[in-house]
Design brief:
By secondary structure, this protein is of the alpha+beta class. 22% of the residues lie in helices and 31% in strands. It has one domain (7-106, 133-251): q2cbj1_9rhob like domain (Jelly Rolls). Strands 1, 2, 3, 4, 5, 6, 7, 8, 9, 10, 11 and 12 form a 12-stranded antiparallel beta sheet that branches.
């Protein structure tokens, strides 16, 4: 369902790229038209961000009900939750020299058993269990009047994040802002940020600015220095909202 044929990556200081026209035009219009209305979202204002979210953790029942009752989202969600989707993304990354070393083939039960016994009795250490991958999926919105996300690197359990714009042609005014910005901390003491501390906008310098446009996907890898943000939008009185879906590939 996602087409990454038109993707370009930057590799410094971490791998981040943008793919354009990721959905078939008809499907994209269907998804945008059936994007959940604002009254379904939780709105939280923190020091780190001012955003609206609708997801399988905080609003699970309503979230699943919405997806199951809207066919385009139901089919898309089913694919996102499959192993095929995970390795479709990982294979695409590897084809662009971003090989995360994660392979589709799992150890057989017999080999896994031998490894566990070897860890315990031969090496005298805690047994190693294979970690499973899964995807999280969230509807997100930022208001043109006050929305922002401070620079951060994402939670340690994340591996890959995809942020897909959900906006109609001509609906968004680029003068409002809404770009996703890859950035670098000005102070070396902030360079190693595996645990995902948020820092202020004046503590980073922008490196790559991805304007908010329709039918695009921003793809980036979680690292110790994968700082990114959405600068504060200050279009006072505007009713515009920056709608996205955020997909995370994570370890369970």
């Amino acid at each position: 369902m996602l087409n990454f044929s038109d993707v370009e990556f930057h590799y410094e200081p971490f791998a981040i790229g943008r793919a354009l026209n990721v959905f078939d035009g008809t499907l994209y219009d269907q998804l945008v038209d059936s994007f959940p209305p604002v009254n379904f979202f939780n709105h939280k204002v923190h020091r780190k961000d001012d955003k609206y979210y609708f997801n399988e953790v905080k609003t699970r029942a309503a979230y699943l009900d919405w997806i199951n009752n809207h066919e385009p989202w139901r089919e898309f969600h089913r694919w996102l939750k499959s192993k095929d989707f995970i390795f479709y993304v990982l294979d695409m990354l590897a084809a662009h020299q971003i090989d995360l070393g994660i392979r589709r083939q799992r150890l057989s039960p017999a080999r896994q058993g031998r490894r566990l016994l070897g860890d315990i009795f031969r090496r005298g250490r805690y047994p190693r269990f294979e970690r499973s991958l899964y995807t999280r999926f969230e509807f997100s919105m930022l208001a043109a009047d006050g929305g922002f996300i401070l620079p951060h690197t994402d939670a340690p359990e994340k591996i890959v994040t995809l942020v897909i714009s959900m906006v109609r042609e001509g609906e968004w005014d680029s003068q409002v802002g809404g770009s996703l910005v890859a950035c670098r901390p000005k102070k070396l003491c902030h360079s190693f940020n595996h645990v995902n501390h948020f820092i202020d906008f004046d503590e980073v310098e922008p490196l790559h600015d991805f304007e908010f446009v329709k039918n695009q996907c921003i793809i980036f890898i979680k690292t110790f220095n994968s700082y990114h943000c959405v600068p504060l939008m200050q279009s006072a009185g505007s009713e515009l909202v920056r709608r996205t879906i955020t997909i995370n590939i994570e370890y369970e």
